[in-house]
Design a protein that fits this description.
Layout (H helix, E strand, L loop, with lengths): L16 E6 L9 H15 L9 E5 L12 E5 L8 H8 L3 E5 L4 H6 L6 E6 L2 E8 L18 E6 L1 H11 L8 H17 L2 H13 L11 H20 L7 H17 L7 H10 L18 H9 L10 H4 L1 E7 L4 E8 L4 H12 L6 E7 L4 E3 L11 H4 E7 L11 H13 L3 H16 L4 H9 L9 H22 L4 H20 L3 H11 L2 H4 L2 H5 L3 H13 L3 H13 L8 H14 L3 E2 L2 E3 H11 L1 H5 L14 H8 L2 E3 L2 H11 L4
Parallel strand pairs: 1-3, 8-12
Antiparallel strand pairs: 1-5, 2-3, 2-4, 5-6, 6-7, 7-14, 8-9, 9-15, 10-11, 10-12, 13-14
Helix pairs in contact: 4-5, 5-7, 5-16, 5-25, 6-7, 6-8, 7-9, 14-18, 15-18, 15-27, 16-24, 17-18, 17-19, 18-19, 18-22, 24-25
Length: about 675
């Protein structure tokens, strides 16, 4: 038996779409009355049948049985469960006919996952969107409760349908529903994986300017749709910030959509709030009224003003001028001074930093580039010393001018005595604090999107992961620095003191929640060249051995670094995670899951990646306040900022064997 409601279903001119629904959630407020009527009529009809039988509903054409080739088919399990998904709302607006049937497909019943209801949208026989009910959301027991509405999250889909679903699900309240806000953030963080920025811009312009949207659209829905697009654009700008400065496509898109808002604000005054928000974002200070946007007034003058005052879009120098890298200025074949400098730095600026670090007179030194073929080129003071191709083609060395034909070895014994004396006189808490300050400046500059680019390795991604690469390189250099300082210290007594000092610095880094340097120091102490110094470790007092054992336990990799993860969760921001492990988590998700499933974007995978990437946001919820370094601390600051390291494990091991030869 079937209960038929008298509605007319409009035949679609295009190819048929099929929606498999099992089961959806309670209807939203705008469709609550319709859902109640349908459920009531269905219930009255079903009461005459066997109440123990399972029911499902099918939306078909009005003049016959279910014909998936003729119109739109929607199967709804559980007769009272008519959901909030946009497609059902659209069918209701188009006066679909609802038929009640008594049987359900036994094959589907066997494979149906009752715990995770799924929704599959098809167009022309091809799946374009798959949704599932969010955990903890069920049918609404109380029709008036907003929290009772079931929510659906994207499992997979085409880029266009994911964006369409996102815009449909957005509402214009100041606080979005948790699942909607998460979907928006997931999409904005990961869209570069499955579509270009130009594709996104064009899709947003189409949604904003479309005359109709999914069939007949009420006039009141038009400004609502436009506002949703503008809200998404605002969130996109807020998330990417300075990244959009260098993207020409983004700049053209923002100009275009701004002109569209200018054109529409007279017809839809409600857009004035969004217009002012755009003016604020784009650096426009003049306040306009709706009358100024009337059709009688041309907006050419306003757009000209926008072009002149686009402070937000002002060109602030090319990436080559503003990008910072770690510049390695080699002192010997295997040791260098690490200098954080801009690509536009001159040879004189770099030489000044190196001279200060080595405590040498700047006028006595020269900066020389040596290619791997042996050719030498001495930099002039105003030459741009840093080149992206330099690292691949050769190295930068510092020479003493009176020894121009040979590298200056800087006698290891004399230098090591002075070096160990300097660091032993430094306060361990202050050293850890300077490490935190330096690492935080790098960590705070990392954009969340850098982890996406770094993991997926898109073409040109190197230019989009600069800050992340710097922090990873810094972690490696701190590890080498620890080993270098210990192995260049010849006297056993001072080497023992130095070992104790590094253990204390590691403990302070943990206390200051700088887990990146903490791991680097512990790994430096555990390198083969240092850990084999049995005579040195034997003289370490028991309390320091116990402290180091406790610190080591935090770096234990067993059970997927459970000790570290548990301790890190308890730490409140600001804090710096161990970045290599965070990248490992993102990479494991990437390698263990396909990006595309049946030609659909695997959005569940992208959600997991975005959720891991949001760790950065949590760690930076509060900012680290680094005080201005007093003059007496400038030497310490320079020491920590420009580490002297030996980057060859073979050279380090040779030093270790020289200090404590094998028995």
């Amino acid at each position: 038996m079937s209960a038929q409601f008298s509605h007319t279903l409009k035949k679609e001119k295009k190819a048929a779409r099929t929606v498999n629904w099992s089961p959806p959630a309670a209807a939203p407020n705008v469709q609550r009355e319709l859902a109640a009527v349908i459920a009531l009529k269905a219930r009255k009809s079903v009461e005459q049948e066997d109440e123990s039988a399972d029911k499902h509903m099918t939306v078909t054409e009005a003049n016959g049985g279910p014909d998936p080739q003729a119109g739109v088919v929607c199967k709804l399990q559980e007769r009272d469960d008519i959901g909030r998904i946009e497609l059902v709302q659209k069918l209701a607006r188009e006066n679909c006919q609802f038929l009640q049937t008594d049987r359900k497909d036994p094959e589907k019943a066997e494979h149906q996952d009752d715990d995770v209801p799924m929704v599959q949208v098809k167009e022309q026989g091809r799946s374009v969107l798959v949704l599932k009910k969010a955990a903890g959301c069920g049918p609404a027991p109380n029709s008036g409760s907003a929290e009772s509405e079931a929510r659906y999250v994207v499992v997979s889909g085409t880029p266009e349908k994911i964006l369409e679903h996102l815009l449909n699900d957005l509402h214009l309240a100041e606080v979005q529903h948790k699942e909607t806000a998460t979907l928006l953030d997931d999409f904005l963080l990961t869209y570069t994986v499955f579509m270009t920025t130009d594709d996104l811009c064009q899709a947003l312009l189409r949604h904003y300017s479309a005359k109709r949207h999914q069939g007949e659209e009420e006039s009141s829905d038009v400004p609502c749709r436009k506002r949703k697009v503008l809200h998404l654009v605002s969130q996109w700008i807020a998330l990417y910030k300075d990244w959009l400065h260098e993207d020409e496509q983004s700049k053209v898109f923002l100009k275009t959509i701004y002109r569209n808002v200018l054109d529409d604000v007279y017809e839809y005054p409600i857009l004035e709030k969004e217009l002012k928000e755009f003016q604020k974002i784009l650096g426009m200070h003049r306040r306009h009224t709706v009358d100024e946007y009337s059709p009688q007034r041309k907006n050419k003058a306003l757009f000209h003003q926008f072009s002149l005052k686009e402070n937000w879009l002002q060109h602030r120098g090319t990436v080559a001028e503003t990008e910072e890298i770690f510049c390695h200025v080699y002192v010997t074949e295997h040791s260098y001074v690490s200098v954080r400098a801009k690509v536009s730095s001159t040879a004189q600026e770099i030489l000044k930093v190196v001279a200060e670090r080595l405590e040498r007179a700047e006028q006595d030194l020269a900066l020389v580039a040596i290619t791997f073929s042996g050719e030498k080129h001495e930099f002039q003071p105003n030459d741009l010393a840093i080149s992206k191709s330099l690292e691949a083609s050769g190295r930068m060395y510092v020479y003493r001018k009176d020894l121009a034909d040979t590298l200056n070895p800087f006698a290891e014994n004399e230098e090591s005595q002075l070096r160990s004396t300097r660091i032993l006189g430094m306060n361990t808490w202050d050293v850890a604090l300077e490490l935190m300050s330096f690492d935080w400046s790098l960590f705070n500059s990392i954009h969340e999107q850098e982890l996406i680019y770094f993991t997926f390795g898109r073409q040109g991604s190197g230019a989009h992961a600069v800050n992340l690469s710097l922090l990873l390189q810094r972690c490696n250099e701190v590890q080498l620095w620890v080993a270098t300082e210990i192995l260049l210290c010849s006297p056993l007594g001072k080497r023992v003191q130095l070992l104790k000092k590094f253990i204390k610095i590691a403990a302070h880094c943990k206390a200051q929640q700088n887990l990146n340097s903490f791991f680097a120091i512990v790994m430096g102490l555990n390198t083969a060249s240092v850990s084999r110094l049995s005579q040195t470790w034997e003289k370490i007092p028991g309390k320091f051995k116990k402290l180091f054992s406790e610190l080591e336990s935090l770096t234990d990799p067993s059970l997927n670094h459970k000790a570290y993860r548990d301790a890190f969760k308890k730490m409140k921001p600001p804090k710096i995670p161990f970045m290599p492990l965070l990248l490992k988590d993102v990479t494991f998700i990437h390698e263990g899951n396909k990006t595309f499933l049946d030609n659909l974007v695997n959005f569940e995978k992208l959600h997991m990646i975005a959720d891991t990437v949001r760790t950065l946001r949590h760690c930076r919820a509060n900012q680290f306040g680094s005080d201005v370094c007093p003059k007496e601390q400038q030497e310490l600051k320079s020491y920590v900022n420009h580490l002297y390291v030996i980057d060859s494990q073979q050279a380090l091991f040779a030093l270790s064997q020289r200090l404590e030869p094998r028995a």
